[in-house]
Write a structure and sequence with these properties.
single chain, mainly beta, 5-stranded antiparallel beta sheet, two-stranded antiparallel sheet, 7 strands
């Protein structure tokens, strides 16, 4: 009996990107969705230009916690109205697909537990800030 393999996908592997400013391209942006904690957020798929590593980032849209989202929108030149407000229309996707930006990569500890409840102390990267590609040295 044949086995249907049409929906099998390569497992996502985490790569530790180097610390510092790196160029990223935005491949996709979802409509606004809810996080596990119930916060509204966007799911943005990005690719590191140098390594071609792809991952998702999840900037939230909660007032007072959306600085990272603001930095991405400004880096991607999302239009601003006469009051200085970004012209975005949640829950619609952000108008940033295909844009490039510089992201500041930092490392942070990542404690996780496997299925046998064994702790693992790893290091992971996190993009903490974005700025326009014009800033590239």
């Amino acid at each position: 009996m044949p086995i249907d393999m049409s929906e099998e996908r390569r497992p996502k592997r985490k790569v530790l990107l180097p610390i510092g400013w790196r160029e990223f391209e935005i491949l996709d942006c979802s409509e606004e969705v809810k996080s596990k904690q119930g916060n509204p957020k966007y799911v943005i798929t990005i690719r590191d230009v140098e390594s071609e590593y792809e991952e998702e980032i999840h900037p939230i849209t909660v007032k007072g916690k959306r600085w990272f989202l603001k930095s991405i929108c400004e880096a991607c030149e999302v239009p601003i109205d006469e009051n200085g407000h970004l012209i975005i229309d949640p829950p619609n996707p952000l108008p940033i697909k295909g844009k490039k930006f510089l992201g500041l990569v930092e490392h942070e500890p990542n404690l996780w537990y496997d299925r046998e409840n064994n702790p693992h102390n790893d290091v992971q990267h996190k993009i903490v800030e974005a700025k326009g590609i014009a800033w590239k040295d």
